[in-house]
Design a protein that fits this description.
The chain is built from 16 helices and 18 strands. It has 445 residues and is of the alpha/beta class. Helix 2 packs antiparallel against helix 5, helix 3 runs antiparallel to helix 7 and helix 5 runs parallel beside helix 6.
Length: 445
């Protein structure tokens, strides 16, 4: 498509939005129903494409893609009418007598730039938020997961309102051309390098942006932790989707007095999960392409292979791998690994943990395994991260790292304007309280 064609595409969607057709609850529910039908009726198409792109099995595909999106659409269908209702809040004294209400108005035309590691969920989940907010959108799937992108390009126009939604295929030139257009909101999922490009392009038009990026997520295993619980949860978080998850544990800081025991338990857990030959496991995927395979195999030299390390370029296969004796300045500790390689570093005390984490960019997630509550609180009080689930010795309580991601897709965050009338803030978090705590407190009786 030429620049003029992209401009015409955006103009067509904007003109449709301005007719008011998308504002009513009937339209929103009809599109959510259509999206749910697409995911259920054409599930086989999505299973096949995800297997082609990532060798993702059906169980995992349902858990994070197909049935996940069906459930999200059903949840939205059940609540979208309530979400649309204005919320009464108390008025400032200077405005008395008056009535103040928070309105949830659609922003307009959005651009959703998807990513390849969860090419379905991380592209269509923001779309559900856009629909709930009464918006229209252009969807740009990742070209790296080409099979899934092609299925979306074929099915979205078949099921959803063509006047409101389009899918654009392509790579960097097409994304660059799209970013030159005028948008009312941009939702991007991907790496920091492209994230900077998106933010720069959006700044020219003061376009609001959600950037769903990655990072090196430290995982702390304290001496007081239940090592079997820690090993199972770390193994699942690191090696699900072949480690290609932005919230996955990127490296482990284990206390020296339990390091040997933890490493052996982690090795046995990997064998229990994926068997002696993980390439035969239906639950173990593949690296997405040759470029990332080559990048990851170079990182294997960052330390001593304690377990795994087998590779096959023809299959883009790298076994679940544990690295030890990894210097902090090694390549594996300088970039987000985003693959099935897990460095395990030994640490002496809590202050060393805090100093190690704080010497690096603030991570997307920080995971703590400790039954000593004081240790958990000391680390949380002294570090910053996007989220920080902590697991105790027995119950393993703590929210999933996906909670933070899920909240970003909600109707009020990316695609609706809201105002805390009491504090006169668009985002109630700026008044020092989370939205769920702020609104009920300031709601008029």
């Amino acid at each position: 498509m030429s620049t003029n064609e992209y401009s015409a595409l955006v103009a067509r969607h904007r003109n449709y939005f301005r007719t008011g057709a998308t504002r009513g609850v009937e339209w929103r529910k009809s599109q959510l129903t259509a999206l749910r039908a697409m995911m259920t009726e054409r599930a086989e198409d999505f299973y096949a494409s995800l297997w082609t792109d990532l060798r993702r099995g059906r169980v995992e595909a349902d858990f994070v893609d197909v049935k996940y999106l069906v459930g999200e659409a059903e949840h939205a269908l059940a609540h979208v009418g309530q979400w649309m209702e204005p919320m009464r809040v108390s008025s400032l004294r200077m405005l008395v007598p008056s009535h103040t209400r928070v309105r949830f108005d659609p922003l307009g035309v959005g651009l959703i730039i998807g990513t390849w590691n969860y090419p379905l969920m991380l592209t269509l989940s923001p779309l559900i938020g856009a629909i709930c907010g009464g918006n229209v959108a252009v969807i740009k799937p990742s070209e790296v997961a080409a099979a899934t992108a092609n299925v979306m390009a074929r099915l979205v126009p078949e099921y959803l309102d063509r006047s409101g939604f389009s899918v654009v295929l392509g790579a960097a030139p097409e994304t660059t051309a799209l970013l030159e257009q005028q948008w009312d909101h941009i939702f991007f999922t991907g790496g920091t390098t492209v994230g900077r490009i998106v933010m720069t392009a959006a700044a020219k038009n003061l376009t609001p942006v959600v950037l769903e990026l990655g990072g090196k997520n430290p995982t702390i295993v304290h001496s007081s932790a239940d090592l079997h619980v820690a090993a199972r949860r770390i193994a699942h978080g690191r090696w699900a989707n072949t480690g290609q998850t932005c919230t996955a544990p990127d490296y482990v800081l284990v206390f020296k007095d339990v390091a040997g025991q933890f490493l052996e338990i982690l090795k046995q857990t990997a064998l229990q999960f994926y068997g002696e030959d993980p390439r035969k496991s239906p639950d173990y995927g593949r690296v997405v392409n040759a470029h990332h395979f080559e990048r990851l195999t170079r990182l294997l030299g960052s330390g001593t292979i304690y377990h795994g390390g087998q590779c096959d370029a023809a299959e883009r296969y790298i076994a679940p791998t544990i690295l030890v004796n990894v210097p902090p300045g090694s390549p594996a500790m300088q970039e987000e690994i985003f693959g099935p390689i897990l460095p395990v570093l030994e640490i002496g005390n809590v202050q060393e943990v805090i100093d190690f984490v704080n010497a690096r960019p603030s991570p997307l997630g920080l995971y703590i395994f400790a039954s000593d509550h004081n240790v958990t609180e000391q680390i949380l009080d002294s570090t910053t991260s996007g989220d920080a689930p902590g697991w105790g010795n027995i119950t393993g309580s703590g929210d999933s790292a996906r909670t933070r991601m899920r909240a970003a897709f909600s109707i009020t965050a990316p695609f609706s304007i809201s105002t805390c009338a009491t504090h006169r803030m668009r985002d109630t978090r700026h008044c020092g309280k989370w939205r769920t705590a702020c609104w009920p407190e300031h709601r008029s009786a």
